[in-house]
Amino acid sequence: MIARIHDALSVQQSDKVIEIGPGRGALTTDLAEATSNLTLIELDRDFATDLQRRFPNAELHSMDVLDVPLESFAERRVVGNLPYNISTALLIRLLMEPRIVDMHFMLQTEVALRLAASPGEKAWGRISVMAQYRCQIQPLFAVPASSFRPVPKVESMFVRLTPRAPKHAANDFQTYSDVVRSAFSQRRKTLANSLSSYEISWERLELDSRMRADHASVDDYVFIANSIDFQ
């Protein structure tokens, strides 16, 4: 499975790579051989000490990845096995940095399916809308629980996120992000209700304000965000 992951990554010597949560270094050995520009972010101090000993040429930061300055990820390829409790928060944060080259993550299957979902599906949510605005999502392959030690109670999937220009661009990405967050914070309500704090002309947009958040597309959210007048 490790070999399959590295085949999917296809790291080149010139690549600048950040590995999030390398742990015992299952992926790190091949990464360190493939590129001379490797950065490791590991919260566990015992793992970090061992990683620094084994990979002295790698730049290591023993800290919470959510505290790493966002600009540190610019012009980098990002890879990691993301823990469930921070995966969504971290993905949302990384999507705010448009200069990331690409991202490859091991995720719980539930999260991977949410990333790749379509409007109207149960899995379609805030992370789906945010990720698909910025990236092409490719679930690459399933990783069974038996591949891990200790064996977890969940199945995983290895996913590629490749940044691309959106079909329709948001005038202001923060506004887009805020609108999406507001809509899905009350996903059972109609968009007219969940976005009632904004001045939106639904007739001019030619969108059905009775839609719920999980039926609106990425483009729908872009059009809504772009229509908001903050003057």
What number is the mean pLDDT? Answer: 94
* Major sheet size, sense and barrel closure: 7 strands, mixed
* Gap from first CA to last CA: 54 Å
Structural class: alpha/beta
Tell me the β content.
Answer: 15-25%
The gyration radius over C-alpha positions equals 19 Å
How many strands appear in the DSSP assignment? 7
- Indicate the overall shape: elongated
pLDDT < 50 runs, ≥5 residues: none
Helix share of residues? 25-40%
What is the spatial order of strands in the main beta sheet?
3-2-1-4-5-7-6
> Helix segment count?
10
How are helices and strands ordered from N to C? HEHEHEEHEHHEEHHHH
Task: Walk me through this protein's architecture.
This protein is α/β, with parallel strands linked by helices and 231 residues long. The protein is built from 10 helices and 7 strands. It has helices spanning 2-9, 28-34, 45-54, 84-94, 109-115, 126-134, 173-185, 191-194, 202-205, 218-227, and strands at residues 16-20, 37-41, 59-61, 77-81, 102-108, 135-143, 156-163. The longest helix has 13 residues, at 173-185. The protein is elongated.
Describe this structure in a few short sentences:
Helices cover 36% and strands 18% of the residues. The chain has 231 residues and is α/β, with parallel strands linked by helices.
Comma- or semicolon-separated keywords:
231 residues; alpha/beta; 18% strand
In terms of topology, how is this protein built?
Layout: H1 2-9, E1 16-20, H2 28-34, E2 37-41, H3 45-54, E3 59-61, E4 77-81, H4 84-94, E5 102-108, H5 109-115, H6 126-134, E6 135-143, E7 156-163, H7 173-185, H8 191-194, H9 202-205, H10 218-227
Parallel strand pairs: 1-2, 1-4, 2-3, 4-5
Antiparallel strand pairs: 5-7, 6-7
